[in-house]
Amino acid sequence: MKTSLKRGFTLIELLVVIAIIGVLSSVVLASLSTARIKGRTAAAQSNMKAVQTAASMCLNEAVAINTTVTTPGTTLVCAGSATAYPVLPAGWTYGTITQTTGSVFSIPATGDGKTVTCSEASCVTI
Question: Please, are residues 68 and 75 in contact by the beta-carbon 8 Å criterion?
């Protein structure tokens, strides 16, 4: 009697392994997408905190805030300042900047379905 041992995987076993790898890769890609959005939001929050600090310093010196950001990175926060509005992450833009009496201001930035608004007291993300 002749017995031959065949070693290897069956087609069903290979297809099951491929299906499992496909499911795992889709979960990882979904997680990476969420992480990218969180990273851009964190970068925007950091940039807006810097803008808030610069605006507060300008108002402490009785200089008005520049409420029109034509080109981020070159538009100064206030006259005579060396600080420019930072470039926000991809997909983020500055909203309408307001300054009312004295040191009261509001500087919003929106992107990725979120809004970061900085005022004289704090920065809030919604």
Answer: yes
Is residue 8 in some structural domain? no
How many structural domains does the chain have? 1
Give the CA angle between residues 118, 80, 101 to the nearest 5°: 45
Q: Is residue 3 part of a domain?
A: no
- In this predicted structure, the answer to whether residue 83 has a pLDDT above a threshold of 80 is yes
Q: What is the value of pTM for the model shown?
A: 0.72
Residue 69 exposure: Cα atoms within 13 Å on the Cβ side: 19
Q: Which amino acid is at 24?
A: L
Question: pLDDT tens for residues 90-108?
Answer: 999 999 999 877 778 999 9
Residues spanned by the domain of 75: 13-125
Is residue 104 assigned to a domain?
A: yes
**DSSP of 45-74:** HHHHHHHHHHHHHHHHTT--B----SSTTT
Does residue 6 lie within any of the structural domains? no
